[in-house]
Design brief:
The protein has a three-stranded mixed beta sheet with strand order 5-3-7. It has a two-stranded parallel ribbon with strand order 1-4. It has five helices and seven strands, in the order E-H-E-E-E-H-E-H-E-E-H-H. Helix content is about 40%, strand content about 15%. By secondary structure, it is of the alpha/beta class. The chain is globular, with a radius of gyration of 17 Å.
């Protein structure tokens, strides 16, 4: 079971994508338009965990090579970073990654969703695996890829 994913091949549609690619697109467009503000849904307080797709791929290979569940043991592994951040912090990180310099507003009339979604990654950690791509680095490369795909009209809008 993996946590929220982001990275190459994502869906950046404003209404049917997940939170991180939707924020990338929203802040990119606001930066391009030099908008004075961007309004995000909810209060920004829910906590979420994000994992780069390359880390998920490495975790899958690692598990295939290193993990042998014993009889009676649960036969799944949670794959994530083990660390969460608020949607507010995520929006600020995406604003930085996209070069947006305006104000971030919050619309509390829109739903926040579940207050906290974080996986227990202790089983995978006990096998000595952990995610290697920090969110700031993953965001920077994902935003750069988004810009390249947009320039080539490959982004699913």
């Amino acid at each position: 079971m993996h946590t929220n994913l982001y990275g190459p091949g994502d869906n950046y549609h404003l209404t049917n994508s997940h939170v991180l690619p939707a924020l990338i697109r929203r802040f990119h467009e606001a930066a391009e338009a030099q908008a004075s503000s961007v309004t995000c849904w909810g209060t920004g307080s829910p906590l979420r965990e994000f994992l780069h797709v390359d880390d998920l791929g490495e975790a899958c290979v690692f598990a295939l090579e290193k993990w042998s569940p014993t009889a009676g043991e649960l036969t799944y592994l949670n794959v994530g970073t083990g660390a969460d951040l608020s949607i507010r912090e995520l929006a600020e990180a995406v604003a930085t990654a996209t070069g947006y310099q305006g104000t971030i507003l919050w619309d509390p009339s829109k739903p926040d969703g579940t207050p906290k979604k974080q996986l227990d990654v202790s089983r995978l950690a006990s096998l000595r695996w952990c995610a290697r791509i920090p969110l700031a680095e993953g965001l920077a490369t994902t935003v750069a890829l988004f810009h390249r795909e947009l320039a080539q009209h490959l982004v699913r809008l």
